[in-house]
Design a protein that fits this description.
Helices cover about 25% and strands about 30% of the residues. By secondary structure, it is α+β, with helices and mostly antiparallel strands.
């Protein structure tokens, strides 16, 4: 499964968010650590442990 993420470079580390769950940001000292942290956020999202989470969805308009 592929997830859309946005990664930003900071002075000593990187930051990132899952585009579909943009309220939650994480950091990592390497790209690999950042990706693992984003995977953890996604797992918490799909497991339902985070209540009242907002996410981005698509809307088809005719």
């Amino acid at each position: 499964m592929l997830l859309n993420i946005r990664i930003g470079k900071m002075v000593r580390c990187g930051s990132g968010i899952l585009k579909t769950i943009s309220d939650y940001m994480t950091q990592g000292e390497s790209t690999e650590e950042l990706q693992e942290n984003l995977k953890d956020i996604y797992q918490e999202f799909i497991s339902g442990t985070i209540p009242s989470i907002r996410h981005v969805a698509e809307l088809a308009v005719a």
